[in-house]
Specification:
Blueprint lengths: L1 E6 L3 H10 L5 E3 L7 E5 L9 E4 L4 H9 L5 E4 L2 E7 L2 E6 L2 E4 L13 E5 L2 E4 L3 H13 L5 H7 L10 H8 L15 H17 L13 E8 L3 H16 L5 E4 L8 H7 L4 E4 L13 H19 L5 E2 L8 H9 L4 E2 L24 E3 L2 E3 L7 H7 L4 H18 L3 E4 L9 H16 L3 E4 L8
Parallel strand pairs: 1-2, 1-3, 3-4, 4-10, 11-12, 11-18, 11-19, 12-13, 14-15, 15-17
Antiparallel strand pairs: 5-8, 6-7, 9-10, 16-17
Helix pairs in contact: 3-6, 7-8, 7-13, 9-10, 12-13
């Protein structure tokens, strides 16, 4: 374990740095006990290895002048960082910072400058860029279609299924669903990690890999009464392999069969999917959101007689208001943000948070859906269930290489509960079961790892 201190006076910056390094075995301490110090908008000189994160702040300029460094600022588009010979992650940056000192990496991957034997400077403000990614994720612009449909007095689900499928049918864009091209937040993590390793000369292992496990989260959104009945088909397969999953149920969308729900969540987790499956959560006041979250939570807790602490919004809605409301109504985990989707319901375009790791947002642990959910694969990208499983497993190799979470969402309402789909779903579960390193957990068990 590496002891790292943070030299910065703002709680927001300290939280972002902790979040960026959270996948690895790092302990945050005071400066005196630290092995290295990450400095942002504040520099210290206590004989410790230092990682300087550049910025536009006066303190950074003062530090550069004190050390007689000429800092060059350049506008830039894309930065890249090598994970291994087969995997490169990329992130966009507003600007880069460099000196005439030694640049440690090749031209394709200029992410850190060596200032002295114990001082290394990143070439990008990873703090500001991470804040920007999260802010853009939470403040995404809804499409006109979404705003119109969710403003109608009746649910969008009243529209014919064929029409809804047509809206989400894929365009002429390539059927690209590979994660490695859509992980900008994780690229920033690795840049900070690389600088820390260079400054200390220490190997920092993954927190998850320390436990010799590849974490997998299987979840299901039950959007209709028919889906609730079909859910048992998936449950039977999971029980055959001693798998657990997380089931997200809307409480006021249809009549709840309490017996089925109790059977589903035996040795599993029950999460809230709101009250009705509409797209209005991100369009109403915080107080109204809190009422919906509290109502759904109370109904589900009454059925299963245990706490409900995980949430997934219908249509994967998310914004700042929702996270504030989740925290104040007793939820601890959310799984409403995809790592990346080609055609997100609210934007009708590509959207995601760009990370395969759990991430704290406003005191809520966000467990992203790290591979495009079945709806995206089957309807938007027009894959078969068999092709979908194959693509998911190809992406799992990327997740495993980075030590992230393989999180997949399967709806019992869709094709995976058809006869051929069930066979393909069992193939997925059997394949995951066949790797002894895989650890199947629920959303709320993330904190144990």
């Amino acid at each position: 374990m590496l002891n790292v201190a943070i030299a910065d006076d703002t709680a927001e910056t300290r939280e972002i740095i902790r979040a960026l390094l959270s996948p690895w075995d790092v302990c945050f301490t005071g400066i005196e006990k630290s092995d290295a110090v990450i400095c942002y908008q504040k520099a210290v000189d206590l004989g410790k290895p230092k990682i300087i994160v550049p910025s536009e702040s006066p303190s950074f300029r003062s530090w550069a002048e004190k050390n007689k460094l000429k800092i060059c600022r350049r506008p830039v588009g894309e930065l890249s960082i090598n994970v291994n010979d087969d995997l490169i992650l990329r992130a966009n940056s507003a600007r880069t910072y460099s000196t005439k000192n030694e640049v440690l990496d090749n031209e394709e991957e200029n992410v850190v400058n060596k200032i002295s034997d114990d001082t290394y400077m990143l070439t990008v403000d990873v703090i500001e860029e991470a804040k920007s990614i999260i802010a853009e994720t939470l403040n995404k612009k809804n499409s006109l279609v979404y705003d119109v449909v969710t403003s109608l007095p009746v649910s969008y689900r009243m529209a014919p299924t064929g029409l809804r499928k047509l809206l989400f049918s894929r365009s002429n864009e390539p059927r690209n669903c590979f994660l490695k091209e859509h992980l900008p937040l994780d690229a920033l993590r690795l840049m900070l990690l690389k600088a820390t390793i260079r400054a200390t000369g220490s190997f920092i292992s993954s927190t998850i890999k320390n436990k010799s496990k590849k974490l997998c989260v299987i979840s299901h959104d039950i959007d209709s009464e028919n889906g609730l009945r079909k859910a048992m088909y998936l449950k039977i397969i999971e029980e055959k392999y001693d798998f657990k999953s997380t089931w997200f149920i809307p409480t006021n969308q249809y009549d709840l069969n309490e017996k089925i729900i109790i059977d589903l969540v035996h040795d599993c987790e029950l999460g809230s999917h709101g009250t009705t499956h509409d797209g209005k959560l991100i369009k109403i006041s915080k107080n109204d959101v809190k009422k919906i979250l509290s109502k759904s939570k109370k109904i589900l807790e009454t059925i299963i007689d245990r706490d409900v602490i995980s949430f997934r919004a219908p249509l994967l809605q998310h914004n700042q208001t929702l996270f504030d409301a989740l925290r104040s109504t007793g939820y601890r985990y959310d799984s409403s943000i995809p790592t990346w989707e080609p055609k997100h319901p609210s934007t009708f375009g590509p959207h995601g948070i760009g990370t395969i790791y759990p991430t704290m947002i406003n005191g809520i642990c966000e467990v992203p859906i790290t591979v495009p959910q079945d709806h995206q694969m089957l309807t938007v990208l027009d894959f078969s269930t068999k092709e979908t499983v194959n693509k998911w497993m190809e992406n799992k190799k990327i997740v495993d290489a980075l030590g992230g979470i393989f999180s997949v969402s399967v709806h019992p309402d869709y094709n995976f509960t058809d006869s051929s789909g069930l066979k393909d779903y069992e193939d997925l579960i059997n394949t995951l079961h066949g790797d002894a390193q895989n650890k199947i957990i629920t959303c709320s068990e993330i904190s144990s790892y």
